[in-house]
Structures are given as structure tokens and as C-alpha cells.
Amino acid sequence: MSTNSLTYTADRADQLARGYQRVVERIRAAEQDTSGARSAQSETVQLVTVTKFFPASDVMALYDAGVRLFGENRDQEAAPKAALVSESVPFHDPARWAFIGQLQTNKAKSVVRYAQQVQSVDRPSLADALAKAYARQVERFETEQAPAPAAYKAGKLECLIQVSLAQGQATAGHASTGARGGADPEQVLALAEHIENYEQLHCAGVMAVAPLGSEPDMVFEKLWNISQILRESFPQATQISAGMSGDLEAAIRWGSTCVRVGSDIMGPRPSA
Ligand SMILES: *Cc1c(COP(=O)(O)O)cnc(C)c1O
Fold it and tell me: Does residue 1 sit within a domain?
């Protein structure tokens, strides 16, 4: 299957739609569990369909089945995919993209073009780069007829602070946490303040990936507690992005408002 084609087979579309539906049913069932932080008043959980490693034609098939919210973790892959999809869907009903991966500051310029939300802000320098890139894209839109940044209608780029929940971690910052990244829990408040100081950015909450081999309920309860502390100072920062194919039930039990699911919808990742 060519990545510059948006054509998909009926079989693949059916497989994707069924995978998506299955995950929605898991989420709806998990929302009933109030043994952790959830209550009857908790909001419904959003589903970000993670399409990394899969072609734009799969995104198109899901879009045609009604899915609008997608996630990607590498700009090199996401930028062309998002561009292809946006060329073939109605302007008034775009696919929306959440960026969920480790991000180098020099990619900020590209990411603000297609991402409505960056869930993986883990350091002040990345917030600096995103604010600058967003402002520059707005300026180019207004003066050079360049496309508006994806978050233009919302007025700000939504940021989640990615928190590292690795156990026994050194205090040396995100360099100590390996490839999965994230800010140390004690850096969250300062980073939220740094983000909110930019008129281009809004800190909407926290995000985390459970470390390999960790106990999901312990990890997600810890994230819930961090989120509660953040909300005392930033009441608007209500989002918790947690839970993937293997651990979404535990994440939802501990107050996740957004799960990011790839393989259970898309199927096993194609080998490179
Ligand atoms: C790939 C990825 C996911 C989805 O993982 P699955 O196990 O395939 O559901 C979620 N979050 C992040 C940050 C990812 O990189």
C-alpha cells in the first residue's frame, strides 16, 4: 500500500471500524467503574486513535467511518500524513491531530501547522519553541496567506504536561527517564506557569505513559494525585491523558479523560 494514496479496501475499512468500535465499548464499560477516582459526574473519556506506522489511507478509512481525533508521535511521519488527509476532507470538518511523542524544539514549527494539541510538553524550552512557532505561523497566516496554525480557531495551542512516572528516578530531570520522557512530578507546577505565561499556549492538564513493567493502578493513581495538585493552582487544567491498548481500564479508573489507543484499533504494528 502506497503512503501517498488515500485509497483503502472495504476489508481494511471494516477491520478498522470494528477495532474502533471495540475500543469505544471498552471505554464505555470502564467509565462505569467508580472504585478509583471516577464518579457518576466524571466526564466521558475521549479516544485518540494513534495511527503511527500506519498509512494515511487508514486515517482516511477511519475518517470516513466518523473518527476525527488522531494521534502521532513523530513529526517526520505525521506532517505528510496530516497534509494528505487535510487535502481530501472538507475544510469545515477537518481531522484533528494530537501530537503525543518526544519533540525536538526544531520540529515545533512543523507541528503547530497540523496539531491542535501537544500532549508531550516536558520542558520550558519546548514551550518556548511552540509559543514562538505558533505566533510566527499566525503572523504568516495574516500577512502572507500561509495556512493558519491548526489551533487557530481555538485561539491557543493546547498543551498537556507529560509527566514521568518512572520509579526511583534521579532528580536530574528528563534526561534520566529514558526514551519515554516526561517532566519530574515536582516540575509540573513551574512548567504549567511557564506555559500559561504565553498568550499562545494553554496548559490543559497532564499526560503520562506507564513505565514498562510498572503496576498500572499505582502509576495512574499517582498521576491523578499530581493532576489534583495542578488543578489547585490551575483550575482549567482538567485533562488527564492516560491509558493505551493494554492499560486503558486502569487509567480510566484513575480519572483519565483521554486514552490514546493504537494497536487495538489499527492491528499489530507493521515491521519497518
Ligand atoms: C504508540 C503510543 C500509544 C498507543 O499505544 P498502543 O499500545 O498501540 O495502544 C499511546 N501513547 C503514546 C505516547 C504512544 O507513543
Answer: no
> How many A from CA of 263 to the centre of ligand 1?
8
Rounded CA-CA distance 132/6 in Å is: 33
Structural domains of the chain, count: 1
How close is the Cα of 141 to the center of ligand 1, in Å? 32
Domain containing residue 50: CATH number:
3.20.20.10
Tell me the best of 58, 73, 206 to mutate to test the pocket of ligand 1, counting ligand atoms within 8 Å of each CB and taking the most: 73
Atom of ligand 1 nearest to the CA of 266: 8
**Ligand 1: which residue has its CA nearest to atom 12?**
100
What pTM was computed for the model? 0.94
Q: Give the structural domain span for 229.
A: 10-266
**Can you tell me the distance from the alpha carbon of 177 to that of 159, in angstroms, rounded to the nearest whole number?**
20
What is the mean pLDDT, run by run of 10 residues, along the chain of 272 residues? 74 98 98 96 96 97 98 98 96 96 97 98 98 97 93 96 79 46 96 98 98 94 98 98 98 98 92 60
